[in-house]
Design brief:
This protein is α/β, with parallel strands linked by helices and about 325 residues long. Helices cover about 35% and strands about 25% of the residues. It has helices spanning about 45-55, 80-90, 100-105, 110-120, 125-140, 145-150, 160-170, 190-205, 215-220, 240-245, 250-255, 295-300, 320-325, and strands at about 5-15, 20-30, 35-40, 65-70, 75, 95, 175-180, 210-215, 225-230, 235-240, 305-310, 315. Helix 4 crosses helix 5 (about 125-140) and helix 7 runs parallel beside helix 8. The relative contact order is 0.14. The structure holds iron/sulfur cluster (SF4) and magnesium ion. Belongs to the ABC transporter superfamily.
């Protein structure tokens, strides 16, 4: 069967004054209706750039899509006409961002911004669109929706603004929602409420959800599958239970070892020594080798393939099989 969305071998670079940054180096993942795929990784790993490429909103002027496909119901959006891409945006795939305040227009009421989409894209009358906006604010559990529909974004709390953005993203009833760090800017209690809301709506509507996050706690609670990104590549992709039971990539393993540090919720992953490589100078061989406690000589020269493992699982480590069998490849895990 054709997945709802499949990204295939996406390659993107940014041409900057400092050189060519290879930001996506062959990213592939897929998500089905009713499924939540969590895309996990440190900042700069390419999570957001992948999402922006899917949406056709890569906003960096020096960005160049070198190749790959974004297949929505099997239709490649990268080669689709601009009008078709516009149509898919909102109706097929919608996206919400970390920073609701910059996504909402400060000079219009929240209700107007939602209603306007319904008027322009669905051809509803002013009155119908207003009613639709109130229903959507209700759906995202904004109390007193009838009154709040007249509020401006700055009159909402951070959590309420995030709800309003979710309402706006749902206006055209998309089949897939991409949520880019949707709770990062919020405090922990509000984060949990927003995640509950997203999960409930996703189930009710049988929507696909791509949840971009650096928070393993969130992943464990809501994801069906996980794609782990590093230096513009997916390094592991697995069912959430399988991945937590035993990682098939040393980077995933290091992330999992950060689990006791979930008190650092909301901060960036700091489990691993060293920094991600500069994308203008990705190391030869396995890009993770300078930080990998299990690296051997071969890792310095040979780029590992993103290869299949038993159980709809993939890893880009030379020793993935060995990790699954014994836990560890050659070198000492405690080093
Ligand atoms: Fe580490 Fe080598 Fe596997 Fe890369 S290929 S993750 S360096 S063991
Ligand atoms: Mg990001």
């Amino acid at each position: 069967t054709v997945p709802l969305l499949a990204v295939k071998d996406l390659r993107v670079e940014f041409r900057t004054n400092d050189g060519v940054a290879k930001v996506l180096n062959g990213v592939s993942y897929h998500v089905d209706a009713g499924e939540t795929l969590a895309v996990l990784g440190e900042s700069g790993s390419g999570k957001s750039v992948t999402a922006q490429t899917i949406m056709g909103i890569l906003d960096m002027p020096p960005a160049v899509v070198l190749g790959g496909e974004v297949l929505f119901h099997g239709e490649d959006l990268l080669s689709a006409k601009p009008a078709r891409r516009m149509q898919v945006r909102g109706e097929g795939i919608a996206m919400i961002f970390q920073d609701a305040l910059s996504a909402l227009n400060p000079v219009f009421t929240v209700g107007f911004q939602i209603a306007e989409q319904l008027r322009v894209r669905r051809g509803l009358s002013r009155a119908e669109a207003r009613k639709g906006a109130i229903d959507l604010l209700d759906l995202v559990r904004i109390p007193h929706a009838k009154q709040r529909v007249r509020s401006y974004p700055h009159e909402f709390s951070g959590g309420m603004r995030q709800r309003a953005m979710i309402a706006m993203s749902l206006a055209l009833d998309p089949e897939l929602l991409i949520a880019d760090e949707p709770t990062t800017a919020l405090d922990v209690t509000v984060q949990a409420q927003i995640m509950d809301l997203l999960r409930d709506i996703q189930r009710e509507r049988d929507m696909g959800l791509i949840l971009i996050t650096h928070d393993l706690g969130v992943v464990a609670e809501v994801a069906d599958r996980i794609a782990v990104m590093y230096a513009g590549r997916i390094v592991e992709q697995a069912d959430v239970y399988a991945l937590f039971r035993g990682p098939a990539h040393p980077y995933t393993e290091a992330l999992l070892q950060s689990l006791p540090r979930l008190d650092l919720k909301g901060q960036d992953l700091k489990a691993i020594k060293g920094l991600p490589p500069s994308l203008t100078r990705i190391p030869p061989g396995c890009p993770f080798h300078p930080r990998c406690p299990r690296a051997v000589d071969r890792c310095h020269q040979e780029v590992p393939d993103f290869h299949p493992l038993p159980g709809d699982r993939h890893s880009a480590c030379h020793f993935a099989h060995e990790m699954l069998v014994s836990g560890y490849p050659g070198s000492n895990p405690d080093k």
